[in-house]
Amino acid sequence: MDLLGTLRGILGGGDLLAGEACAPFESDHRRLYRGRALAVAQPRSVEQVARILAACNEARVGVVPHGGNTGYCGGATPDETGTQLVLSLARLNRVRSIDPGNYSLIAEAGCVLAEVQRAAASAGRHFPLSLGSEGSCQIGGNLSTNAGGVHVLRYGMMRDLVLGLEVVLADGRVLPGLTALRKDNTGYDIRALFLGAEGTLGVITAASLKLFPEIRSTATALVALAEPRAAVTLLAQLRDASGDAVSSFELIPRIGIELTSAHIPGVRDPLGAPHAWYALCELSSSRPGEPLEALLAETLGAAHASGLVQDAVLARNERERTALWKIRETIPEAQRHEGPGLKHDISVPVSALPQFVERGAAWVAAHVPGARLIAYGHVGDGNLHFNLQGRGAEGAALLERSEEVRRALHDLAAALGGSFSAEHGIGRLKVAELERYAPATELALMHAVKRALDPNGIMNPGKVLRGA
Ligand code: MLT
Ligand code: ZN
Q1: pTM of the model as a whole
Q2: pLDDT band at residue 220, thresholds of 50, 70 and 90?
Q3: How far does the centroid of ligand 1 lie from the alpha carbon of residue 332, in Å?
Q4: Which ligand lies nearest the alpha carbon of 133?
């Protein structure tokens, strides 16, 4: 029987899409790539995933795992040949179990992140991974790209939130590993290989995830600052003053407020006068009635008196808090309204972040004078989205220079001990960057691992590693 016939036998007709029906799975969120799929498989069980991979491995057909399709690097898009199978995990979407006493739950790969957060909340627990696309991104994608977001400062990246994984290997064998253990020193950490591997080593079908005490007190402020250096200093002051209760600390440039006010209904500048930079700060605690607002107001007051902070507004209720977060979270959407732009996802040590902004902005002003710089992101993680935006024809000209701009900014990050890919992964977009910046030994080990786990090269071919 041909492969499609075999897949139909495994899935039943309705769960295997072909032709036009594949279109939503053939391009990425940013519309950087437009591929063509052989078909789209939508399995409903781990056993079906295992049989699909065994059949594709036998037929030497590439498999492209696909989650919520919110990635920025084209990692879930098939190539243009029409020979690769897209494997959508969306129908594997059960929260299998919650163990409040162990502070853990088991979720399948197709669970939407917001649903996992809700499931945890319904058991009086907190699942802290939080990002702009949480209403549509899926846990499998979060795991496979080692997603970050706005709480990394307190809770770590996705990798840090995992206790165990269930993975289907390229040849169809299932690696069972849904342990809920916090201590387990039993040899190599094989499961860790699949986190951040973007589906190039196997398919994550479920994960055992860490939960935390529910958040019961929060204080949020938008703080105006003269420069990013002040943000780094203020972050340290807040961490010290609050007993490390800072759970988010996000940098927003003036243009971020302007673009969101212009394009996103309901967004407005909450401060009376414009400022060059802002930090969105949030303190949180699991203790009810914790006086975090008073603590935040007091620390910001002292920082204002010392000249570090220019102005600040504190959220007085949940509605105002949501409004402040909306400014930060809709910057990418507002940017899309302005036309084509260049995105970068760099990280440096937090202490080097001001230097990156100063030197990066100076380079942009000197070499791409028509471009508007939109540098925002996660100060506490040293992670900036250092984006450039054109307008109309200017935008198209900017895209033509993407290679040169990328090189300058990624070289600068590397010179400061940083990374060209902080939280968005490699996908198809940054394969050459990985080759350039990864130490040769590390790259060779990556290829060796790939050969060992996927000798026929069927798992997400062309992503992360070239020719693999
Ligand atoms: C963010 O921090 O908003 C996301 O990583 C998305 C983006 O960089 O645009
Ligand atoms: Zn981000």
Answers
A1: 0.96
A2: very high
A3: 6
A4: 1
